[in-house]
Amino acid sequence: MRPLKIVVLIKQVPDTRNVGPDAMKPDGTVNRGKLDTVFNPDDLHALELALNLKDRIPGTEVTVMTMGPRRAADIIRDSLYRGADHGIMISDKRFGGADTLATSYTLVRAIQKLPSYDIIMGGRQAIDGDTAQVGPQCAEKLGVPQVTYVEGIISITDDEVVAKRRLSKGVETVSSPLPCLITVHGASPACRSKVAKRIMQYKYARTNSEIRPNDGFIKELHSKRPYLTIPEWGVEDIDADETKIGLSGSPTKVKSVESIVLTANEAKVLSDSDLDIETMIKELIDHHIIG
Amino acid sequence: MKSVFVYCEVENQKIAEISQELLSTGKKLATKLGCPLEAMVFGSQLAGIQGQISLYGVDRIFVADDIRLEPYRTLPHSSIATHVLKQEEPQIVLFGATSVGRDLAPRLASALNCGLTADTTILDIGDHFVKKEKKEYKDLLYAIRPAFGGSIMANIINWDQHPQMATVREGVMKKEVFDENYTSEIVEVDVNSIVKDEDFVVKIIERHIVESDVNLKEAPIIVAGGYGVGSRENFERLEELANLIGGEVGGSRAAVDAGFIDHNRQIGQTGTTVRPKLYIAAGISGAIQHTAGMQDASMIISINNDPEAPINSLADYVIHGDLGVVIPKMIKFYKANAK
């Protein structure tokens, strides 16, 4: 079959799975500095699904794309180490503060700059917001069908993909014409590891804004090996309408946040002695909680 | 006055639980706003479906009845919903945070160019002063949801790009009948004039829906285990206790991840939200992800050998001890004392 062009949308996120007590400031806002950043877990699953198609179909190219601050180039390098062919960084201060609507607009403007695509992939959701909205919003803007919650690709031909979806209450197998957008569920296979040879090859991959003026060695390397330069696109590069990006393009706004404080309770503290447990069981029965 | 709209999920002529929860919540919001409550339901063989919807106090029901609309597929549902919402211009639209609602709502939000808040757990009406415009916006939707792994609750508003849309987590809102005899006006949607052939390009080849026999939401008593339970075998002790006292067994995310208990029994932010009259937390430390899904239980018993476990601060009874000792004793003394 013909080679495919696959774009994987990836995101660098604060590691909300390990929120410690110091991750919250006294005023109840999130102290992002105290949270490590990670490659969004579902996006790694999406990358694996894309790389798997690349293994199956010779000539297929996988491009990862992320919108974020400068340091998010880390996950582009990570993807290159695991087998992605290209990475594109979408970064501009004016993109900041975007909600899912503004984010999908921005990503779609960037996708439309590419010569062609067959499948757009992304993780089902990102662990910082858990919204699962950006995928379907991009699909609508691109005018392509969406297949959400995919846990595996059953088959693929030149113009159709058959995928298995994981639903709240079961599974479903659907076919969709190409091009389409697929969001990938965490139940799909985990992403392959980084490859030592590829780490050697791409460890100096940088966006231009990551290269400091005195990095003569890296500059020279990039002029010899242009594939090391990760393209970095700002507002003008993707011809974005400034009223549709960042904070101004975001209809949803955070009015307030409140940190969750567990309210202390007057608990009866018991031991595991026969007396304590029998007393408790009797109280529960007497109060018709059980029995 | 612009209405509050609820997208109702239907399968085999049955309106989903979550949609009934949404209608109940939608009625409260509509009452506060003094506006009508409206519903849309798209499926197949829907004659008489209003019998399951009107009683929540719904003023108008938009019914799209066509064999091609069931089971749910994104594109036809999205075309019809976009058409109805553009025509009716409601101020608020609610969806379940299910695999259907979370697939459909963002596609609609993009088509309507409006705001959407995911996975809300509290909805309310309130005002907001926009400093930049020096203007007070009245009667906005407060879409409140946990964020950052459940460590904060964020109140999300949208004052300028309506409708205000939200998906709502299953099992959080209470289902409450408004009036058994309420009558709704039925508006039949002309499906053929709205959908196009391209809306049916995605085809469902195979489908297995498991009607879960686990009903944690309705269980009056839940015995839940965490990672501290240690093994699948130890979970059988919890099951024995649960069966004895008329409850269900549940687990924390850590216990599910460790394979001690099945995914459909997970309680917490990423599982089911429960509010039983008794919740027994065995070997659960009480990460916010978990407590967000059970803190409304009427009574909580925490069994833990860590006196500092965060869940203890929610509990009515804290038992310091080993599960291997405490659970068998609870079984023994229940058998001895039950009437």
From TrEMBL, chain A:
Domain Electron transfer flavoprotein alpha/beta-subunit N-terminal residues, every copy = 27-215
Q: Which Pfam families match?
A: ETF (PF01012)
* Signal sequence annotation: none
Q: Which InterPro entries match?
A: ETF_a/b_N, ETF_b, ETF_beta_N, Rossmann-like_a/b/a_fold
Keyword terms, alphabetized: Electron transport, Transport
UniProt xrefs under PANTHER family: ELECTRON TRANSFER FLAVOPROTEIN BETA-SUBUNIT, PROTEIN FIXA
Q: What is this protein called?
A: Electron transfer flavoprotein subunit beta/FixA family protein
Q: Which organism is it from?
A: Maribacter arenosus
From TrEMBL, chain B:
Q: Which InterPro entries has this protein been placed in?
A: DHS-like_NAD/FAD-binding_dom (IPR029035), ETF_a/b_N (IPR014730), ETF_a/FixB (IPR001308), ETF_alpha_N (IPR033947), ETF_asu_C (IPR014731), Rossmann-like_a/b/a_fold (IPR014729)
Keywords assigned = Electron transport, Transport
Pinpoint the Electron transfer flavoprotein alpha/beta-subunit N-terminal domain residues.
4-204
Could you say which protein family the record assigns here? Belongs to the ETF alpha-subunit/FixB family.
The name this protein goes by in its record? Electron transfer flavoprotein subunit alpha/FixB family protein
Q: Which organism is it from?
A: Maribacter arenosus
Q: Could you read off the lineage of the organism from its UniProt record?
A: Bacteria, Pseudomonadati, Bacteroidota, Flavobacteriia, Flavobacteriales
